[in-house]
Amino acid sequence: MKILVLGPGAREHAIVLALLAENTDHEVVCAPGNAGIAASGVETPELAYTDPAAVAAFVAERGFDLVVIGPEAPLVAGVANPLRAAGVPVFGPDQDAAQLEGSKAFAKRVMDAAEVPTGRAARVGSVAEAGNVLDEFGAPYVVKADGLAAGKGVLVTEDRDAALAHVETWAPHGDVLVEEFLDGQEVSLFFFADGHDVLPLSPAQDYKRIFDGDAGPNTGGMGAYSPLPWVADDFVAEITRTVALPTVRQLEAEGTPFVGLLYCGLIVTEKGVRVIEFNARFGDPETQVVLARLESPLSQYLLAAATGKLAEQPEPQFSDEPAVIVVVASEGYPGDVVTGRPIGGLDAAAAVPGVHLVHAATARDADGGWVATGGRVLGVVARGETFGAARERAYEAVGLIELEGGQHRTDIAARVA
């Protein structure tokens, strides 16, 4: 197949690597991609990937058999709409269905209609209104910006004044939700969806906070591991039955079929599993460990979802070997990031058995060396016979990477190793 992957990050690098690993001669293009994806031997043309008209023109010119939309921004911008209208198989929801991620209020309404288990929530438009709801729900306080906020729109705090300040910051940009605090272990579970049916991938857990012990501010994700040995044997079947399928069928009934990747952000509480949030695309960095274990051909499921044929497919198969990813970030992340610093040791890190690297924010300098261009720079992905072995390999490789001021968590997957 001739496949276009849209997006510039580590998630897209992981998708590209999974496609290249298939025993099929795909022609894979990633736009705009990044320097690491280009180093994998994939064409990375410049493209305004969040512009529906620009993407539609590019696809029409190049004649792709499948378009895979990676990040949330082009989905919410409606990039899938003109492609699907032109008859191009697209893995990624239309603009209306993408509101499942683009608007937390929309997602809560859909969950309520589909009777999906989730926490209480109230939409607020002012600090005064928020104060009353915060007092009703009690601490810890959970405040979420309604729209996309690059992982920075959610605040969980015991400090009522801080919660009100978060409302004040985000209220001018749209609605804000105050939610019931849910306590437990978080799980990320992905589903392929074709508008009517779903098929599950393997669960993962990510680490959102910047520092060890889940301290410090939220980030886009500092590491992850898969599978989850501590979830019940029927966990995936339960979430399929109570969350993923009802959500997809509800959207279908509303005339906004969801085609693409349904990301269920879940929490296992004493009262049962609850949905924290939905995303409309592969999560980063969980994708890197889930796809590292996928033994079935990824393209088979992407195309089946895009063409409404998931019911004809068997459930995806995964290796029993665990996978761990440790993210290396620039100094200052997730605040004021220091960029432009050289990166060394990447070849040595990639040479560690069972390890591969995914690039998020790197570039080549004039001499062909690597430099960091953003906050989360790259991820070190490792597989092993046990969690301990995978984790040991990942940290051995991280130790070989040279980046002045670079930072990473040291406790990724420690609880299962």
From TrEMBL:
Entry EC no(s): 6.3.4.13
Keywords associated with the record: ATP-binding, Ligase, Nucleotide-binding, Purine biosynthesis
Every ATP-grasp domain range: 108-307
Species of the source: Leucobacter chromiireducens subsp. chromiireducens
Pfam families: GARS_A (PF01071), GARS_C (PF02843), GARS_N (PF02844)
Classification via InterPro entries: ATP-grasp, ATP_grasp_subdomain_1, PreATP-grasp_dom_sf, PRibGlycinamid_synth_ATP-grasp, PRibGlycinamide_synth, PRibGlycinamide_synth_C-dom, PRibGlycinamide_synth_C_sf, PRibGlycinamide_synth_CS
Catalytic class of the enzyme: ligase
Molecular function GO terms recorded: phosphoribosylamine-glycine ligase activity
Protein name: Phosphoribosylamine--glycine ligase
Coiled coil region boundaries: none
Catalytic activity, as annotated: 5-phospho-beta-D-ribosylamine + glycine + ATP = N(1)-(5-phospho-beta-D-ribosyl)glycinamide + ADP + phosphate + H(+)
PROSITE patterns reported for this sequence: ATP_GRASP, GARS
Gene3D superfamilies in alphabetical order: 3.40.50.20, ATP-grasp fold, A domain, ATP-grasp fold, B domain, Phosphoribosylglycinamide synthetase, C-terminal domain
Top-level taxon: Bacteria
Family: Belongs to the GARS family.
Cofactor: Mn(2+); Mg(2+)
Functional pathway: Purine metabolism; IMP biosynthesis via de novo pathway; N(1)-(5-phospho-D-ribosyl)glycinamide from 5-phospho-alpha-D-ribose 1-diphosphate: step 2/2
